[in-house]
């Protein structure tokens, strides 16, 4: 005998009295006149069709209703009761039936119960559609808008923020055997860019319909309803490979950014991974800057526009004032949308950066606030790579290095391009008294992102690790590189002052200390020494020497 599950909402809908009844319109009547684009798929709510590229995907009616409802309610977790009420109109539905429909929905979308790339089960809470979705409102006069239409039809919606298509890279080598490598770069980059918070990336199947043909870039932007186009070329000559890429504003066809990679060929697969990682990391910051610039032009920014504005500021943050301003804007974004996961993680990231750089005496309060924000974010989005990274950084900075390393490794499982995760693992080695191992992890971070926006922090981490092993001259060189990368990071100046003092250069040490105090006037040797980084005896013993160098440089003790 099969047991049935009757939800409270379903029970109310079956009661004779209308008191307390919450009856929702049938999905087919409530939905419609929308086309949802996500990954390689287009779901037409009016025609009740699902397309992958140019292929129509067969979907059972109830499964279609389930997918459409989850997409419509994608900004929140949908309870099982709500799902039954909306899709089954409150009828009695068994647990097995719900599970079966969810499995079919995932199957037709190329998802799985293990991966949960698009439809995520939130334990004890319900379900949520987590894919990046672009809405296209259809006018009454037209029944559909093909993403490859050539009729200059413009969707009746504004361009989605941080929307991009990666056009198939051109193979300039004249060697057909290189085609697989070139296509691999395009496909991998499309996948990796989709991990950028708040992004909408056109699926590779749609993008590859443009392969081998010449198109007007502005027309492509109109056809796909995107703000940005990334195009590139690959050329192999003997033992070297040259890759050219450029980011284009789809509305104006103006070039926003260009880059060239010229690398020796050792292993093509390793080279492909390295190229894609470097491009993904660089484009993450470039696209964030562009979205922040657009946001500044909006008289009434919405929650995500404020998020991009705060994220761009966080990327440049070096002083306590910068971090405070970034956190304030993240909080404004949350005030407009309390469910904005990206802004939620952003507030925690701002607190973490302040804790890690000894920018506040109120570390305990910042830690509690940051951990609470991350716990809330991860309860809704358990596979949020950046949230795991920030949590790892918090653990490493607060005497929980092993747990921090585990969180950073989880972040790398979710986002292989997370250069910062490698840097944080290097920091964990330093705080556990194994400073001689730090440089290798930082070098791996630089391999993935050689011009990273946080390069100054990574260089400073190596500098501190060199002080730990009494390699003062090497520490001096690393700190100078950090300052060349970003002169507004106070901790670098304080580390440099200690290295110079320990090298017997008091005047230069004092100048470095003054430069740091101009950026962070509240910094003291006691704040540095009292920060609960770790109780590791090796770290604590070596730290005393650094503190003495800071005192000799003229940094106030308290």
Account of the 3D structure:
The protein has 558 residues and is of the alpha+beta class. The chain folds into four domains: 8-136, Arc Repressor Mutant, subunit A; 163-295, ABC-type transport auxiliary lipoprotein component (Rossmann fold); 300-383, Serine Threonine Protein Phosphatase 5, Tetratricopeptide repeat (Alpha Horseshoe); 456-558, Tetratricopeptide repeat domain (Serine Threonine Protein Phosphatase 5, Tetratricopeptide repeat, Alpha Horseshoe), CATH 1.25.40. The chain has helices at residues 8-14, 27-30, 61-72, 80-87, 95-108, 179-193, 204-207, 217-224, 268-296, 303-316, 320-336, 341-356, 363-380, 385-397, 401-414, 419-431, 438-448, 455-468, 472-485, 490-502, 506-519, 525-530, 537-553, and strands at residues 34-38, 41-44, 49-52, 55-57, 119-122, 126-129, 134-137, 163-166, 170-171, 200-201, 228-237, 240-249, 255-264. Strands 8, 9, 10, 11, 12 and 13 form a six-stranded mixed β-sheet that branches. The protein has a five-stranded antiparallel β-sheet with strand order 4-3-2-1-7, covered by helices on one side. A two-stranded antiparallel sheet has the order 5-6. Helix 10 (303-316) runs antiparallel to helix 11. The longest helix is centred in the middle third of the chain and has 29 residues, at 268-296. The radius of gyration is 26 Å and the shape is globular. It starts with 7 loop residues before the first helix and ends in a 5-residue tail after the last helix. The model is unreliable at 1-32 and 138-157 (pLDDT under 50).
Kindly summarize this structure in a few lines.
By secondary structure, the protein is an alpha+beta fold. It is about 55% helix and about 10% strand.
